[in-house]
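stuck on this one:
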Amino acid sequence: MPTDDLFRKVLIIAYYFPPMGLSGVQRTVKFAKYLSKYGWKPTVLTVAPAGYYAFDDSLLEEAEQAGVSIVRTTSLDPNRVFRRRKTVRMPSERMRKVLQFVGDFIFIPDTKIGWRSAAVRAASELLQREQFDLIFATAPPQTDFLIGTALKKRFDLPLVVDYRDAWLDYPFKYFPTPLHRMLHRRLERRVLKAADRVIVTHRRVKEMLLRRYSALDYNEVVILSQGFDVEDLEVDRTPRAGQAGRMRISHSGTFYADRSPGVMLRALAAILRDNPRLRGRIELNFIGTVREEDRALVRKLNLQESVTFQGYLPHRESIRQLAVSDVLWFVLDNDVQTPGKLYEYFGTRRPILASVVDGYTKQLIEESGAAVTVPLKDGAAHQTAILDLFTRFEQRRLPRPVEGFADRFDRLKLTGELARQFESLMDYDRHAFVRMNERTA
């Protein structure tokens, strides 16, 4: 570990950060956790906790134990309706769509634009007090990019922007009028013009950016995938009580839009109806926030004894649940997003049943060598896949991933690549980039 005077300093702009939970915080907190191993000392600028769908204090503790500095500000956005930290119930799909449409109609680029002034003010005070080498803004929300762009203009520091999801091509973003889309495109162009490096998590996002903005250079857009933290997998893998002879299929994450448990629930119900002997031999385990409509479907299909809803769990416990499962279910209704949970599935080395559309993500899953992919809404294909996996489960020959496949998604190694991107933007070498053994650093 380098001494303090050899560290470079990076200011991370991230609205979503622990104790907020869910998938939007994990990439950022893991980067922040490991950057110091490569000579970069991170300070995270984020918001004070208020109302949100889930909280995970274990992730906040992880960041604090890694020595990450955290600066919090107030924000004028809809989450501030709940002035104190409060868990908010997940809305129904119909209500989610209404809220999304209203938010996209009123706020540009997103409902977090009310954070911009407070964030720029707090960051400016920080940058005037301390010497930083680089600004790293991660989105969504795209407001984070606008904050980073304003700070780049004011302080002339290198700016790296991290697209965790696409902006104009995000599948669940509404553009109520052509004017809305034009304004978003203008903002995105301004951000990309200011950015010194663009990081994306998905090949499709890079392709779309390069196609839309001819001024972007191919080498300025770097693909840095989602990943998993090896330390999260250091969990107790003792088989659960009553596990013998019972195949558990687990899913981690939140359902919305066409990303629904309906196809799997109906497939399981059909299997148990046609094969009563399998009742009690196959179970579905859902880890994450739950919608009432999903519970209602379980009751309607009479699957209460075959389906478990764990609710939102601390991150390490959710990984443990995956690690002791027999099969992991992944569902994705587009080829633009790249959910972090997929890479954590890879990290467990468990077989994957994937309900996906054709495209790059499907190809990646099949490359693992331990996956069965089926069309997103094909119920019969799901039944066949589940029965085939159960047969292989009984024969103790469930597939295992190709040797070395998962290693390239190690969060520590990915953070090393991010640090290399940071270092490439520095004007001189202060020996801050320290090459260490990737797993013993």
In short: The chain has 14 helices and 15 strands. Confidence is low (pLDDT under 50) at residues 429-441. The chain has two domains: 4-227+410-423, 231-394. The radius of gyration is 22 Å.
